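From the shared-data thread, chain only:
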Amino acid sequence: MRHRHVRRALPGLNSVIRAIVLSLHHNYGVRTVYGFPYGYEGLTHRYGHQPVELTPAFVDRIHEQGGTILGSSRGNQDIGEMVDTLEQMNIGILFTIGGDGPCAERVPSLRRSNAGD
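Structure, as tokens:
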């Protein structure tokens, strides 16, 4: 399947990214927030996308730009590989924004099930 990358066609997503980062920082004291370029594709190593650290300074004026600073993509990604990436980075929560692609129905099952949880 051919992947389409989009940066400009998603109005309002930068505002959502900014709101999440600022809320986590100021209301919950979270100091490290990562964005994954091209959505779920950014959670799989085979594409080589590096996570972007999102700080209040970094997102300060992104709402003035159209589209999304992180980009987006279409295409099915391996849920196990995505979970592995989150675990390796010690990420406890994943915010997903928009999308109705192939992974949309499977995102609620993103958490690896462990009998000991």
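Residues 14 and 62 are 6 Å apart (CA to CA).
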